From TrEMBL:
Organism of provenance: Weissella coleopterorum
Superkingdom of the organism of origin: Bacteria
Binding site for substrate: K111, R261, N262
Residue ranges occupied by any Glycerol-3-phosphate dehydrogenase NAD-dependent C-terminal domain in the UniProt entry: 186-326
Record's protein name: Glycerol-3-phosphate dehydrogenase [NAD(P)+]
Length: 339
């Protein structure tokens, strides 16, 4: 395969895992991180212990705190910072691309919605970066815990862009025999799926800690997926996207695994911890906590019934006892399954 220059913005668990995939594929990879200690560790020890334990990274990966150095000549730039940093980082990226007079494909691997605007990562990137510096915008979505990717568990994701040529370029660069990349053109559906499944994963963690069994989990998955798809419909997303990797696939991975920060957060909330305690214990981004608030507001604005997401909202933001929230879900007026 031809060698492509790939830059990864964000030296957390997902950014480091994606950088490692690209480096394993023989590409020239630079990671931009804002913490000197992490950058030094990646360059000298080839590890990122805080996020990925003892896993050894490809020695060819270079890390830097200098954004211009990181992106210079990069055909593909992966933005892998949390939602709350995405606009700020996209703004810095715009300045760096302008300084270099460079045009790159920018790919968001972030799963969330900006609280103040309800925008997805790809939309923030489109707003912050001059069109003249963009060779395309895409997202990477799907069931892909960094911890599994780094140890070569067979993993499938989808590269999504309105421009399928761009999606196919990412597919070729990132695919290998343990990391299989599909393509899709439904960017709204993929980003909604990636964000909304985190809310349902929090609920799944709560069910787990309350020791509810398969019936309750199946109910949560099925009805949770239904409300994800209902909001998708209001956004004009392709309903089939919710049946794919970015929808049911990511929901399954996130809502069944203790690798998931959202699932673990749900377990802690189910055990009676407050939102503040959960955030402090985790030390890593739990996107679903702020997404729950955004989804609560969005569902009202779009007049979409999202009872499970609403129950998660009540538990996180109003201190509702999870057992009572579940009971209230079960006691709602009966209706047709298709609603
Ligand atoms: N961890 C995973 O397995 C996966 C995560 N994601 C998504 O990827 C995004 C990032 O998640 P993780 O890597 O897991 O988070 P993380 O908490 O492991 O790492 C986030 C990284 O971003 C850095 N960061 C935060 N603010 C920054 C700023 N203003 N400028 C530069 N760097 C900044 C942090 O220092 C940290 O290195 C999230 O939206 C998450 O939903 C998506 C798929 C898988
Ligand atoms: O999106 C993910 C896996 O596909 C990661 O989920 P968490 O952020 O809950 O760890």
């Amino acid at each position: 395969m031809d060698q492509t220059k790939v830059a990864v913005l964000g030296a957390g668990s997902w950014g480091t895992a994606l950088a490692n995939v690209a480096a394993e594929n023989g590409h020239a990879v630079k990671i931009w991180g804002h913490r000197v200690a992490t950058v030094d560790e990646i360059n000298t020890q080839h590890t990122n212990k805080e996020y990925l334990g003892d896993r050894v990274l490809q020695a060819s990966i270079q890390a830097t705190t200098d954004l211009v150095t990181a992106i210079e000549g990069a055909e593909i730039i992966l933005s892998v910072v949390p939602t709350k940093a995405t606009r700020e980082v996209a703004n810095l990226l715009n300045q760096a691309l302008t300084q270099l007079q460079q045009k790159s494909i920018v790919v968001a691997a972030t799963k969330g919605l900006e609280p103040s605007t309800y925008k997805f990562a790809s939309q923030m990137i489109a707003e912050e970066i001059d069109a003249s510096s963009l060779a395309g915008i895409a997202v990477i979505a799907g069931p892909s815990h960094a911890e599994g990717v780094i140890k070569h568990d067979p993993t499938t994701v989808t590269a999504v862009s309105e421009d399928l040529v761009v999606a196919e370029r990412i597919q070729r660069v990132m695919s290998n025999s343990t990391f299989r990349v599909y393509t899709n053109d439904d960017i709204v559906g993929a980003e909604l799926g990636g964000a909304l499944k985190n809310v349902i994963a929090i609920a799944a963690g709560a069910l787990q800690s309350l020791e509810y069994d398969a019936n309750a989990k199946a109910a949560l998955f099925t009805r949770g997926l239904n409300e994800m798809a209902q909001l998708g419909k209001a956004y004009g997303a392709n309903p089939m996207t919710f049946m794919g990797l970015a929808g049911v696939g990511d929901l399954f991975a996130t809502a069944t695994s203790t690798h998931s920060r959202n699932f673990r957060a749900g377990m802690q909330l189910g055990a009676g911890l407050s939102k503040e305690e959960v955030i402090e214990h985790m030390g890593m981004v739990i996107e679903g906590i702020s997404t729950t608030k955004v989804v609560h507001d969005l569902a009202q604005a779009k007049q979409v019934e999202m009872p499970i997401s609403n129950a998660v909202y009540q538990v996180i933001y109003e201190g509702r006892d999870p057992k009572i929230a579940i009971r209230e879900l079960m006691d709602r007026p009966l209706h047709h399954e298709g609603k």
